[in-house]
Specification:
single chain, 409 residues, alpha+beta, Thrombin, subunit H, Pdz3 Domain, 6-stranded antiparallel barrel, 22 strands, 37% strand
């Protein structure tokens, strides 16, 4: 049975780059000892998650309850499909044209997600950070082929984890009767050579199933200068599978698939994030409050910087953290008062990972001037980037038309 620390609730997501821009996977006993003082919604989330964990450890649980112990791949897939969702991300991307000028365009991408909890008001879904990165609109598709709008609760780019939510009021009674919370297993119990099943929205075509074995455990993989230890499997994990489920032969979730780590030049080498390694992170993200309403125009917070994206390519080439590189700080702005300087790289805003200027802009749009948030950034010290935090009280943008500046490179 998995055990987790008490979840820490904190407001997550969304913004306007005023720049110038639990459900805890714990055992039930531990939860009841920790649950006092939480809100009713947090208590419900934790109890629902506890039920899922306890069910996964009950060897005699029936297939109707979601257990597929000792079953075939077909039975495992049939039992798990109601817990899998397809995610569509509509976002704004920035690119350079032949003249070295920055251009912004809309894009759409697809991925997968896993239902891991439910409260009285919302359905909680875990996925990869890169699946929802920069999202301005998120849509979640369920097993009955219905879809609903989703919002980001929180993200952790370093571990490529995100939690999103769907309001239960947006789902029909029929949909609610067909979906369910996934059962949680333990990645620590996996053995090399053990059979596993991967389910995800491969290439955006809809949910598909692949199977293979655990090829290696604790495999170190470095992306964007960050190293994580992953489960290596020869089960096919393709674009769109990201955020999907890696299941053991009891039908329990043991890993979160991530095509981000896969090498398309090599066959039979896919990776999944071990569920045991990210349970604390998921728990924390699940208990944040998603901001669903942007601040009124004219009252949106203002940071007071201009910046450029530190992309994966730039990060790897120059050893810089991914985020937003500050190219200038406006005099008297919230950023200057917080001690931010040109050359610093913003990586998180109010606990939510930041990987692009447009993403930061979108986040800030949900915050009003006068609100104080924690901002995480990296600054050069002794020739190396070190992570620092600052409390930033957002200011007022006197030039409402100039919410964010994206300079040409």
């Amino acid at each position: 049975m998995l055990k987790f620390k008490k979840a820490v609730k904190f407001t997550a997501m969304a913004l306007t780059f005023g720049v110038v821009a639990s459900a805890a996977f714990q055992g039930t006993n531990f939860l009841f000892n920790q649950i006092d003082g939480d809100t009713q919604e947090e208590q419900e989330a934790k109890l629902n998650m506890a039920d899922a964990v306890n069910a996964s450890s009950d060897a005699s649980a029936s297939t109707e309850e979601g257990t597929a112990a000792g079953s075939s791949v077909a039975a495992i897939a049939d039992a798990a499909m109601p817990s899998l969702v397809a995610i569509t991300n509509q976002s704004v991307q920035e690119m350079m044209n032949w003249f070295g000028q920055s251009q912004v365009y809309e894009s759409e991408s697809s991925g997968s997600g896993i239902i891991i909890g439910q409260t009285d008001t919302e359905l909680l879904i875990v996925t990869n950070n890169h699946v929802v990165d920069g999202a301005q609109n998120l849509s979640v598709g369920f097993i009955d082929e219905t879809a609903a709008k989703a919002q980001v609760k929180g993200t952790d780019a370093e571990h490529d984890i995100a939690v999103i939510s769907v309001n239960l009021s947006d789902l029909s009674a029929d949909t609610l009767s067909q979906i369910k919370v996934i059962q949680i297993g333990s990645s620590a119990d996996l053995q090399v050579g053990e059979q596993v099943v991967a389910i995800g929205n491969a290439l955006g075509y809809g949910q598909s199933v692949t199977t293979g074995i655990v090829s290696a455990l604790d495999r170190p993989v470095t992306i964007d200068g960050v190293t994580n230890t992953l489960i290596q499997t020869d089960a096919a994990i393709n674009p769109g599978n990201s955020g999907g489920a890696l299941l053991n032969m009891s039908g329990q979730l043991v890993g979160i698939n991530s095509a981000k780590y896969s090498d398309t030049t090599v066959e039979g080498m896919g990776y999944a994030i071990p569920v045991d390694d990210v349970t604390d992170i998921i728990e924390s993200l699940m208990n944040r409050t998603a901001r669903t309403q942007k601040a009124p125009e004219g009252q949106q917070g203002f940071l007071g910087i201009t910046g450029q994206d530190v992309t994966s390519e730039i990060s790897e080439a120059y050893g810089m953290p991914k985020g937003v590189y500050i190219t200038s700080v406006e005099e008297g702005s919230a950023a200057e008062k917080a001690g931010l300087q040109k050359g610093d790289i913003i990586t998180k805003f109010d606990g939510t990972s930041v990987s692009s200027l447009s993403g930061l802009q979108e986040l800030i749009s949900y915050y009003s001037s006068g609100e104080t948030v924690e901002l995480t950034y990296s600054a050069v010290s002794d020739g190396q980037y070190t992570e620092q935090t600052a409390e930033v009280t957002l200011g007022v943008n006197e030039n409402a038309a100039n919410i964010v500046t994206i300079p040409s490179r």
